[in-house]
Design brief:
202 residues; four-stranded antiparallel β-sheet; three-stranded antiparallel β-sheet; 6 helices
């Protein structure tokens, strides 16, 4: 069957949900991610059926801020997917393998547009404290994020950190317990557009 459309879809809190946001014990739930022996992400059976049908008729690209390793933990219905975008657009997976040409282009663009990640990390660590930071993570050498205690994060931290980062080519966002610091040139839509370009040959 000839594909009708190219569709990119985010994963967390769009297709898949943690126990925090979806009652895993409820009816019509399917586990799609296991980590360290624990079931941690789920889809509704209705979403499973709809996604399976969508994949059968279209080119569907999972697009996520997750790293490659985090993405590979997920068992999405409709797999295998020929293309996937991970690391907030930093990686394009082609038949499950990172595309090196795209990775080199991303690295050059990030390097040219803002200060290095090492400088960001130094500044971030001087502002964050163990009182409210639970974990610090660096994703694929491209960006970083904090896992925080939402109730303890100082109200001024995110706006002040964003104000410091933006003139230096980086963006800051908070998504629940995670505070991301990402190069402004790194975005999922740019990677999806690259996949589209390859598919249509223009």
């Amino acid at each position: 069957m000839t594909a009708r459309s190219l569709i990119a879809c985010d994963l967390d809190r769009t297709l898949i949900y943690s126990r925090r946001f979806l009652d895993a014990a409820g009816p019509g739930r399917r586990c799609v991610e296991v980590y360290e022996g624990e079931e941690i992400s789920f889809m509704t059976e209705n979403a499973v059926a709809l996604l399976t049908d969508l994949v059968a008729k279209n080119v569907v690209i999972p697009a996520t801020t997750r790293t490659v390793a985090q993405y590979r933990r997920i068992t999405l219905p409709g797999a295998p997917y020929r293309f996937a975008v991970t690391s907030n657009g930093g990686t394009i997976l082609v038949d499950g393998m990172p595309d090196q040409e795209w990775a080199a282009a991303v690295e050059a663009r990030v390097r040219a547009d803002g200060v290095p990640l090492a400088e960001i990390l130094t500044a971030l660590r001087s502002r964050a404290t163990d009182r409210w930071v639970r974990k610090e993570r660096v994703a694929e050498g491209l960006f970083c994020y904090l896992v925080v205690d939402e109730t303890a994060v100082p109200t001024e931290f995110v706006p002040e950190w964003r104000a410091w980062c933006e003139p230096r080519g980086w963006q800051v966002s908070q998504q629940g317990r995670k505070i991301y610091t990402v190069p402004r040139t790194l975005c999922k839509s740019r990677a999806v557009d690259e996949v589209r370009r390859r598919l249509v040959g223009s």
